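Methods — Computational structure assignment.
A single polypeptide chain was analysed. Its primary sequence is given first, followed by the predicted tertiary structure written as structure tokens.
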Amino acid sequence: MEKDCLFCKIANKEIPTDFLYEDDMLVVFRDINPQSPVHLLIVPKKHIRSINDLTEEDKIIVGEMAMLGKEMAKREGIDQSGYKLLFNVENGGGQMIFHLHQHLVGGWEGDAKW
């Protein structure tokens, strides 16, 4: 855990958050500034700064994040209408919190807006 990392604090329950899902590796919660009707964050409990900091040992985490994204899309009722799973990487890629996380976005009527 990084001392000042917002997502580490959320994952470790130092900041109260309503988890939609939690296991020993990942947590899922709603984005506080949603960019779509459904906007969830899938966050590993292990602190990994960004995609650029992944190691061979972290492959299982990314695989679990993708599988959980698929499951959460189904739970949210957007698996058939369509959704996006996104990683923002570094400042130029829109990453604002430097703890690896995957966005699950969707729920638009008609064509995606984002």
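Note: The beta strands are 21-22, 26-30, 38-44, 83-86, 102-106.
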